[in-house]
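During the second half of the funding period, the structural biology subgroup turned its attention to how the target accommodates small molecules. The most pressing case was 2-acetamido-2-deoxy-beta-D-glucopyranose, which had performed well in the primary screen but for which no bound structure existed. We therefore specified the complex as follows and requested a full 3D prediction, including the ligand pose.
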Amino acid sequence: MRFSSAYLLQILVASTSAQLLTLPKLFSQDTNTDTDRQAPLIMDPVGPAMPPTTKEPSSQQPPPAQGGVLISDVMGRDRSFNMFASFVRDVESVSRRLDDSSKNSTVLAPLNSAIEKLPGKPWEDPKDYSALGATAYDGDDGQERARRNIRRFVEAHVVPVSPWREREKTRSLLDGDKEIWWENKDGVMTLQPDGTEIQSVASRVGNGEVWVIKANEP
Ligand SMILES: *[C@@H]1O[C@H](CO)[C@@H](O)[C@H](O)[C@H]1NC(C)=O
């Protein structure tokens, strides 16, 4: 089987600029709330020397906490989850939270590869298709539906707690979402109850952490 050129283009675009991968035009007016702005990287060399905790969700040494830097400053830096970062930029309430030094969060950023493995696009909801058919995302109403679905997807990947301790039950920002927690078994960290593997802690900054998560294995 040959890959279609559209598919290859998608991969190319994903690897070069997640910005282009957001819904064409749909969210373009939001892109100037660009959180990739060059924030001064204020390291805190005199911060308290915290002993490394033994329960970090990574087999590697997590990056040291960076005081003064916010999640919003670091979300766009890592290409491996830049699709998710661009979705976050399209959701103003969540972008604002990640830019707020008084609100801690743990961001569960799916790898681009995990988003590509989803059965549908994050802005699609099978319920919309069954109710409205193939044109579910056409027109202004369709754009509104897509926007809402992206918002739900992003909210479901942000936990309003950090530090988030092992087995501490909490809920994502998504209204009515189920309880989730994480655990470490033999050095493999997983989100529960779904078992999604946490690959690493990408960043630890003043208002929380960014964790990178893999696709759910069926
Ligand atoms: C927020 O996160 C910072 C950095 O990890 C931590 O020092 C602080 O105690 C946290 N605040 C709350 C309310 O959890």
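Two results from this model are relevant to the next phase. Residues 1-56 have pLDDT under 50 and may be disordered. The first helix runs from residue 5 to 16.
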